[in-house]
Amino acid sequence: MKKCRVNNRGGFRPNAFQYCAGRSPIHRLGPGWKMILALALSAGAIAAREPWMLLVLLAANLIYYLSAQLGFVNLWRDIRLFLVQMAIILLLYLLKYGVSEGFWPGLRTGFQILLLFLPGTVLLRTTEGSQMMRSLKKLMPERLSFLLFTSLRFVPFFVRESREIAMAQQLRGAPVGIRYAWNPRHWGDLFQCLMIPLMVRALKTARTAALSAEARGFEERLRP
Q1: What's the pTM value of the predicted model, to 2 decimals?
Q2: HSE-up of 209 (CA within 13 Å, CB side)?
Q3: Over the chain (224 residues), what is each successive 10-residue block's mean pLDDT?
Q4: Could you tell me the residue ranges of all domains in the chain?
Protein backbone atom coordinates (compact mmCIF):
# COMPACT_ATOMS: atom_id res chain seq x y z
CA MET A 1 0.00 0.00 0.00
CA LYS A 2 1.37 3.37 -1.00
CA LYS A 3 2.47 5.59 1.88
CA CYS A 4 1.99 9.33 1.94
CA ARG A 5 5.00 11.57 2.27
CA VAL A 6 5.58 14.57 4.46
CA ASN A 7 5.98 17.80 2.50
CA ASN A 8 8.31 20.67 3.31
CA ARG A 9 5.62 22.55 5.23
CA GLY A 10 5.16 19.71 7.69
CA GLY A 11 1.84 18.42 6.32
CA PHE A 12 0.71 15.46 4.29
CA ARG A 13 -0.39 15.41 0.67
CA PRO A 14 -1.92 11.97 0.23
CA ASN A 15 -5.16 10.83 -1.32
CA ALA A 16 -8.18 10.48 0.90
CA PHE A 17 -8.10 7.47 3.26
CA GLN A 18 -4.50 6.66 2.30
CA TYR A 19 -2.12 5.30 4.91
CA CYS A 20 0.20 7.92 6.43
CA ALA A 21 3.28 6.82 8.31
CA GLY A 22 3.74 8.54 11.65
CA ARG A 23 4.74 8.21 15.30
CA SER A 24 1.56 9.41 16.96
CA PRO A 25 -0.03 7.49 19.86
CA ILE A 26 -2.72 6.27 17.45
CA HIS A 27 -0.10 4.91 15.06
CA ARG A 28 1.51 2.99 17.91
CA LEU A 29 -1.80 1.62 19.09
CA GLY A 30 -2.43 -2.00 18.10
CA PRO A 31 -4.64 -2.60 15.04
CA GLY A 32 -7.04 -4.68 17.13
CA TRP A 33 -7.64 -1.82 19.55
CA LYS A 34 -8.19 0.60 16.67
CA MET A 35 -10.76 -1.77 15.18
CA ILE A 36 -12.56 -1.96 18.53
CA LEU A 37 -12.54 1.84 18.82
CA ALA A 38 -13.83 2.20 15.27
CA LEU A 39 -16.66 -0.26 15.92
CA ALA A 40 -17.58 1.44 19.20
CA LEU A 41 -17.66 4.93 17.70
CA SER A 42 -19.57 3.73 14.64
CA ALA A 43 -22.11 1.95 16.83
CA GLY A 44 -22.52 5.15 18.81
CA ALA A 45 -23.25 7.03 15.59
CA ILE A 46 -26.02 4.57 14.74
CA ALA A 47 -27.55 4.84 18.21
CA ALA A 48 -27.30 8.64 18.50
CA ARG A 49 -30.63 10.45 18.20
CA GLU A 50 -30.26 13.63 20.24
CA PRO A 51 -28.23 16.70 19.21
CA TRP A 52 -26.00 16.53 22.28
CA MET A 53 -25.15 12.91 21.52
CA LEU A 54 -24.09 13.79 17.98
CA LEU A 55 -21.99 16.71 19.25
CA VAL A 56 -20.25 14.50 21.82
CA LEU A 57 -19.51 11.88 19.16
CA LEU A 58 -18.29 14.53 16.73
CA ALA A 59 -15.91 15.92 19.38
CA ALA A 60 -14.68 12.41 20.22
CA ASN A 61 -14.06 11.62 16.55
CA LEU A 62 -12.20 14.90 15.98
CA ILE A 63 -10.00 14.31 19.02
CA TYR A 64 -9.34 10.75 17.86
CA TYR A 65 -8.49 11.89 14.32
CA LEU A 66 -6.27 14.81 15.34
CA SER A 67 -4.50 12.66 17.96
CA ALA A 68 -3.12 10.72 15.00
CA GLN A 69 -1.39 13.98 13.91
CA LEU A 70 -3.03 13.83 10.49
CA GLY A 71 -3.96 17.50 10.46
CA PHE A 72 -6.95 19.46 9.20
CA VAL A 73 -5.93 19.20 5.54
CA ASN A 74 -6.22 15.43 5.60
CA LEU A 75 -9.44 15.71 7.59
CA TRP A 76 -10.90 17.91 4.87
CA ARG A 77 -9.84 15.44 2.18
CA ASP A 78 -11.48 12.59 4.06
CA ILE A 79 -14.82 14.22 4.88
CA ARG A 80 -15.53 16.57 1.98
CA LEU A 81 -17.49 13.96 0.03
CA PHE A 82 -19.50 13.18 3.15
CA LEU A 83 -20.27 16.90 3.54
CA VAL A 84 -21.65 16.94 0.01
CA GLN A 85 -23.67 13.86 0.85
CA MET A 86 -24.99 15.56 3.98
CA ALA A 87 -26.12 18.54 1.93
CA ILE A 88 -27.88 16.29 -0.60
CA ILE A 89 -29.62 14.29 2.13
CA LEU A 90 -30.73 17.47 3.88
CA LEU A 91 -32.04 18.89 0.61
CA LEU A 92 -34.03 15.73 -0.11
CA TYR A 93 -35.57 15.79 3.38
CA LEU A 94 -36.49 19.45 2.99
CA LEU A 95 -38.11 18.84 -0.38
CA LYS A 96 -40.15 15.92 0.95
CA TYR A 97 -41.10 17.04 4.46
CA GLY A 98 -40.59 20.80 4.46
CA VAL A 99 -38.32 22.91 6.64
CA SER A 100 -40.11 22.40 9.96
CA GLU A 101 -40.35 18.60 9.78
CA GLY A 102 -37.43 17.74 7.52
CA PHE A 103 -34.53 19.86 8.74
CA TRP A 104 -33.52 17.97 11.88
CA PRO A 105 -34.12 14.41 10.56
CA GLY A 106 -32.12 15.25 7.41
CA LEU A 107 -29.30 16.87 9.36
CA ARG A 108 -29.22 13.99 11.86
CA THR A 109 -29.08 11.35 9.11
CA GLY A 110 -26.23 13.16 7.37
CA PHE A 111 -24.26 13.48 10.59
CA GLN A 112 -24.83 9.83 11.43
CA ILE A 113 -23.43 8.71 8.09
CA LEU A 114 -20.39 10.95 8.56
CA LEU A 115 -19.76 9.73 12.10
CA LEU A 116 -20.33 6.13 11.02
CA PHE A 117 -17.42 6.18 8.57
CA LEU A 118 -15.04 8.70 10.18
CA PRO A 119 -13.52 6.24 12.72
CA GLY A 120 -12.71 3.88 9.87
CA THR A 121 -10.70 6.58 8.13
CA VAL A 122 -8.40 6.77 11.16
CA LEU A 123 -7.92 3.00 10.94
CA LEU A 124 -6.98 3.25 7.27
CA ARG A 125 -4.75 6.29 7.80
CA THR A 126 -2.73 4.85 10.66
CA THR A 127 -2.56 1.09 10.01
CA GLU A 128 -0.37 -0.67 7.48
CA GLY A 129 -1.94 -3.38 5.37
CA SER A 130 0.21 -6.17 6.80
CA GLN A 131 -0.67 -5.22 10.38
CA MET A 132 -4.35 -5.05 9.56
CA MET A 133 -4.33 -8.43 7.85
CA ARG A 134 -2.60 -10.12 10.80
CA SER A 135 -5.11 -8.65 13.24
CA LEU A 136 -8.09 -9.66 11.12
CA LYS A 137 -6.83 -13.25 10.93
CA LYS A 138 -6.89 -13.41 14.73
CA LEU A 139 -10.50 -12.20 14.89
CA MET A 140 -12.18 -14.10 12.07
CA PRO A 141 -11.70 -16.93 9.54
CA GLU A 142 -9.05 -16.43 6.86
CA ARG A 143 -11.55 -16.19 4.00
CA LEU A 144 -13.61 -13.51 5.75
CA SER A 145 -10.52 -11.61 6.90
CA PHE A 146 -9.18 -11.60 3.34
CA LEU A 147 -12.47 -10.23 1.96
CA LEU A 148 -12.68 -7.52 4.62
CA PHE A 149 -9.04 -6.53 4.23
CA THR A 150 -9.40 -6.34 0.44
CA SER A 151 -12.47 -4.15 0.79
CA LEU A 152 -10.68 -1.75 3.14
CA ARG A 153 -7.52 -1.70 1.04
CA PHE A 154 -9.38 -0.63 -2.09
CA VAL A 155 -11.12 2.34 -0.44
CA PRO A 156 -8.28 4.81 -1.18
CA PHE A 157 -7.82 3.18 -4.59
CA PHE A 158 -11.39 3.89 -5.64
CA VAL A 159 -11.20 7.41 -4.24
CA ARG A 160 -8.19 8.02 -6.47
CA GLU A 161 -9.97 6.38 -9.41
CA SER A 162 -13.04 8.58 -8.96
CA ARG A 163 -10.85 11.69 -8.93
CA GLU A 164 -9.07 10.62 -12.12
CA ILE A 165 -12.38 9.88 -13.84
CA ALA A 166 -13.77 13.24 -12.75
CA MET A 167 -10.69 15.06 -14.10
CA ALA A 168 -10.97 13.24 -17.44
CA GLN A 169 -14.66 14.05 -17.72
CA GLN A 170 -14.05 17.69 -16.84
CA LEU A 171 -11.52 17.94 -19.67
CA ARG A 172 -14.31 16.76 -21.97
CA GLY A 173 -16.61 19.49 -20.70
CA ALA A 174 -18.82 17.35 -18.46
CA PRO A 175 -20.32 19.07 -15.36
CA VAL A 176 -18.56 16.76 -12.89
CA GLY A 177 -17.12 17.90 -9.58
CA ILE A 178 -18.02 18.86 -6.04
CA ARG A 179 -19.29 22.27 -7.11
CA TYR A 180 -21.82 20.60 -9.40
CA ALA A 181 -22.97 18.04 -6.84
CA TRP A 182 -24.98 20.67 -4.95
CA ASN A 183 -27.28 21.26 -7.90
CA PRO A 184 -29.94 18.55 -8.51
CA ARG A 185 -29.92 19.40 -12.23
CA HIS A 186 -26.44 17.86 -12.53
CA TRP A 187 -27.12 14.65 -10.61
CA GLY A 188 -27.96 12.79 -13.80
CA ASP A 189 -24.68 13.93 -15.38
CA LEU A 190 -22.75 12.91 -12.26
CA PHE A 191 -24.27 9.45 -12.38
CA GLN A 192 -23.62 8.92 -16.08
CA CYS A 193 -20.17 10.51 -16.26
CA LEU A 194 -18.78 9.45 -12.88
CA MET A 195 -20.68 6.63 -11.21
CA ILE A 196 -21.11 4.35 -14.22
CA PRO A 197 -17.39 4.47 -15.24
CA LEU A 198 -16.44 3.98 -11.59
CA MET A 199 -18.67 0.91 -11.31
CA VAL A 200 -17.13 -0.51 -14.48
CA ARG A 201 -13.63 -0.02 -13.04
CA ALA A 202 -14.74 -1.53 -9.74
CA LEU A 203 -15.99 -4.68 -11.45
CA LYS A 204 -12.79 -4.93 -13.50
CA THR A 205 -10.63 -4.42 -10.41
CA ALA A 206 -12.60 -7.00 -8.44
CA ARG A 207 -12.12 -9.55 -11.21
CA THR A 208 -8.39 -8.80 -11.40
CA ALA A 209 -8.03 -9.17 -7.62
CA ALA A 210 -9.92 -12.48 -7.69
CA LEU A 211 -7.70 -13.84 -10.46
CA SER A 212 -4.59 -12.68 -8.61
CA ALA A 213 -5.71 -14.40 -5.41
CA GLU A 214 -6.51 -17.58 -7.32
CA ALA A 215 -3.12 -17.52 -9.08
CA ARG A 216 -1.41 -17.29 -5.68
CA GLY A 217 -3.22 -20.39 -4.46
CA PHE A 218 -5.51 -18.61 -2.01
CA GLU A 219 -8.47 -20.83 -2.89
CA GLU A 220 -6.47 -24.00 -2.39
CA ARG A 221 -5.29 -22.93 1.05
CA LEU A 222 -8.87 -22.48 2.21
CA ARG A 223 -10.07 -25.90 1.11
CA PRO A 224 -10.36 -28.50 3.90
Answers
A1: 0.69
A2: 14
A3: 45 64 89 88 90 94 93 89 86 88 92 91 86 72 66 68 78 75 72 79 73 62 50
A4: 14-139, 140-224
